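Hey,
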Amino acid sequence: MALFRVLLKRTLWILPVALGVVTITFFTARLFNGDPTELYAPTEASTEMLEMIRADLGLDRPSGVQFLSYLGEVVRGDLGTSFSTGNPVAADLTNRLPATMELGVLGLIMAVVCGVPLGVVAAVNRERWPDFLVRIVTLIGMAIPQFWIGLILLLVFFVQLNWLPGPVGRLPLWVEMPPRVTGFLLIDTLLDGDPAKCLQALRALILPTVTLGLCTLAPIARVTRSAMVEALQSDYIRTAYAMGHSTRVVLFRYCLRNALLPIITLIGGIIGFIFGGAVLIEAIFGWPGVGQYALQAIQQSDFVALQGFVIYASLLYVLAFLAVDILYMLIDPRVRA
């Protein structure tokens, strides 16, 4: 019952956060984008035509009225209609989300599978050469911009070696997309009974996945090392060794479990970053996800699409950290108090 009360309290905090995000996004988008009417009018449009376009877009009403109307639409799940695509923003984001999720899940798996063990190795070998090597690698990984890593990988594996496809999106341009069932290309190609096309989709995923994984691996390894070093110096770890437990049991049953909280917190933020759309990575590789959608909205001054994306990404961060809170309570009962 105590767990339910804490969970309900944390969930209710989403409402004022969501309201704040919608409010700030709405007025900021209009403040910096100005009046987009002329972008969607003929070159020699008359004043009367511009006023008609403004009325069609709902921009002739006072800002307060526009905001209340938009707030009601957001509550119903309507994020408005994109000026550039002519489609509902919610539909555009839904159509592009599987591409981002497919890339994000694989990148996150790579980052966690590689980053956590590297952090553990560095902590166990503190102040020895494995520790120094991991610290140098993580420092370089955190210092190098993600777009630079992506460009170098393209230069080496696409331009020089021609081993992997270039920035052509989820499939080569000459390959027909399979019928959309789930939106996840690896699954849809298998459901279509075409393993060769699935392999092509997998090859197209390698470079953006490695880029995303390398960008997020370094902070995970660094936080894991710090948390493990602190846990290894605790009294309960020395007691566990004194009781005759093996090193494997001490490291993974006691030490790593108690070091999970900061790691989970970091992963929650990374999930928000990835599924919110790794904009630069998607732009470099021509990946048709929500990040590229946001970039196109910026380039075309489509503030309706842009504010829809910001609301989506912000709520995704909130939900990611709500999931972190739930995991906290399951891992550490002291958090429930």
